Amino acid sequence: MDDLNLLTKALTALDDKLAACMKCGMCQAVCPVYGATFMEADVTRGKIALLENLARKMIDDPDAVSDKLDRCLLCGSCQANCPSGVSILEIFMEARAIVAEYKGLSPLKKALFRTLLPNPRLFAALMRVTSPLQKCFLRQEENAQNTCRAPLLSPFLGDRHMPPLAATPLSARVGRLNTPKGKSRLKVAFFPGCLGDKVYTDMAEACLKVFDHHEVGVYLPDNFACCGIPALASGDMDGFARMVRHNVNVFKEGSFDYIVTPCSSCTATIRDLWPQICAKTDLPYRYRDATNELSLKAMDINAFLVDVLKVRPKTKGHPRGKTKVTYHESCHLRTSLGVVQQPRTLIRMNAECELVEMAEADRCCGCGGSFTLTQPELSRRIGQRKRDNVVASGADVVAAACPACMMQLADVLAANNDAVTVKHVIELYADSLK
Length: 434
Prior knowledge:
The strands form three sheets. Strands 3-5-4-6-7 form a five-stranded mixed β-sheet, with helices on both faces. The protein has a four-stranded parallel β-sheet with strand order 9-8-10-11, with helices on both faces. It has a two-stranded antiparallel sheet with strand order 1-2. It has helices at about 1-20, 30-35, 45-50, 55-60, 60-70, 75-80, 90-105, 105-115, 120-130, 135, 155, 170-175, 195-200, 200-215, 230-235, 235-250, 265-280, 285-295, 300-310, 330-335, 340-350, 370-375, 375-390, 405-415, 425-430, and strands at about 140, 150, 175-180, 185-190, 215-220, 260, 300, 325, 355, 395-400, 420-425. The N and C termini lie far apart (about 65 Å). By secondary structure, it is α/β, with parallel strands linked by helices.
């Protein structure tokens, strides 16, 4: 009975937020899923119509409700374009939590979100075992994206082209850092994210090179956990709370001015979702207070370099280097954080690079975290549109400011045998430093 009462309260609270939607359809023009399917049920107002009858529909067919809600990238484009200011991302994540509570999580998701990701020591131990074994499952490809394929794991991963795990995670490679402030008089807590720690370690080390160049002190714990967005996107509030609690305990040990990340999804999660979601959980007040304090310090690394350190190109105009670089705008970076020009400024800092704009630079690449696994065909269709724009730009390199986007870009480019290299913006900027 208590569970039923909690479910009723959750549905009532959701109904109050749904009332703000006017069904105007402004979300149609910007929704990447609708742009691929042209189905009303895939656009935001269609999903909101579903949610308005959530209780009855869950009882009739909870799997169908879950599938409809999963056909959303949580990119935030609809929310940014909503004239009524509806908190669409909050609504969808709460709806997923309600459905997950009603259906229950799979044993795999429980193990991942509640045991592995909140326990970085355990995760690191598993990495030490699995990383040497990946050669047994992955087949290295010869392409510009340096991707692999996993034929034996195709029932789970599909026909994806993916980067291999790093031989040594960043946390093991550089260990714990706690360097003092230099001439910048600033110190940052560096949060590389899961992909920065375990896949794109060169990108994470490029960030450390940049901090060192600008004499910024760095606090880097060697036992940070996932930011929590994968659990939250799957509706697992308990797993999300565990990851937040662990990270709060880790970061409270350091003294710093900003939390800087090279992943826009991590930044948006720490800045917006940590305090927003934790306020609705049963976490002790000290954690809620801590997330409010930490959220004020969260900043994307592109914004930190340009807005705080005032990094600017030394020459006026647009340099025309030998390497043509086009820039993909990650959804969370643009719509959630409002970071647009700063990555372009950093690309222009590299005299070897010429920035060439692609069409629809701000359109989603189709990654959306687990969306690539739950909706692989739809993800590839959306990604193909992005790939076409990248190739049409004539660029040698496509730069992004989100590791998840980098994975998706590498996948669709490799699938088409394209010669375009995928880089993080910070890698290009770090290459320009002497």
